[in-house]
Amino acid sequence: DAGVIQSPRHEVTEMGQEVTLRCKPISGHDYLFWYRQTMMRGLELLIYFNNNVPIDDSGMPEDRFSAKMPNASFSTLKIQPSEPRDSAVYFCASSPGLWSSPLHFGNGTRLTVT
Amino acid sequence: GQQLNQSPQSMFIQEGEDVSMNCTSSSIFNTWLWYKQDPGEGPVLLIALYKAGELTSNGRLTAQFGITRKDSFLNISASIPSDVGIYFCAGPLILPNAGGTSYGKLTFGQGTILTVHP
Q1: Is B30 helix (H, G, I), strand (E, B) or coil?
Q2: Chain A contact for B39, CB < 8 A?
Q3: Could you tell me if B93 and B105 are in contact, meaning their C-beta atoms sit under 8 angstroms apart?
Q4: Does B85 touch chain A (CB under 8 A)?
Q5: Measured between alpha carbons, how far is B104 from A94 in angstroms, rounded to an integer?
Q6: What residues 1-20 of chain B have any CB closer than 8 A to a CB of chain A?
Q7: Interchain CB distance below 8 Å, B33 and A102
Q8: DSSP string of B40-97?
Q9: Which of A68, A64, A28 is nearest to A47 (CA)?
Q10: Which of A11, B8, B53, B103 is most buried per CB count within 10 Å?
Q11: Which residues of chain A are within 8 Å of residue B109 when distances are taken between CB atoms?
Q12: Contact A64, A83 (CB under 8 A)
């Protein structure tokens, strides 16, 4: 079990640039979640997918953020254009079922927007 | 909304001491989860509690689901340096018409930062 794999681990970009974060969930997990962690707001759920379909994106901050899951083993979170206030650690997590075991988190992507 | 309040915000203890932290809410939760986040890593589940009054242990960790279903505590006995990290309580939003508990929208507390001095 390789766990949830995120890339890159660190991303530094300039304001206005497009940023793409990547996630590979644990094989067999039907649910995938994107969280953002900041000192001020803690861990916030941005969006989650079930069987590759977005179920709830109410946590996505604004239209600059978008997430896709083209297949069961890959998801992206894109920010376009990026702003300094987007600086945070972004976590991907997966779960085998909504009614079953809790979330398995990746090690996160630390994003810095200058 | 369903908010979780964790205390204390931070703790500085000596190796070997016991640690206690808690989590309270104004709303009822059907499940309480405790996660630990090591520096540079994602949160990892420590203990899950599913019934009011339940007391569960995992090695040196002990957690309890409060009778009122609005609180939980986590104790760590005989702390060691690798206990350093951020401890989060979390509870899933309750979907009132779904006949169960959704783990999809976890609400997290703000975390307790634990520092252990050798």
Answers
A1: coil
A2: no
A3: yes
A4: no
A5: 10
A6: none
A7: yes
A8: TS--EEEEEE-STT-EEEETTEEEEE-TTSSEEEEEE-S--GGG-EEEEEEEEEEETT
A9: A68
A10: B103
A11: 42
A12: yes
Chain B contacts of A2, Cβ < 8 Å?
none
- What string of pLDDT tens digits covers the 114 residues of chain A? 689 999 999 999 999 999 999 999 999 999 999 999 998 889 999 999 999 999 889 899 889 999 999 999 999 999 999 999 999 999 999 988 764 467 899 999 999 999
Q: Could you give the CA distance from residue B27 to residue B43 in angstroms, rounded to a whole number?
A: 23
Question: How far is the C-alpha of A33 from the C-alpha of A50, rounded, in Å?
Answer: 9
What are the tokens at B9? 């915000």
Concatenated DSSP letters for A19-60? EEEEEEPPTT--EEEEEEEETTTEEEEEEEEETTEEEE-TT-
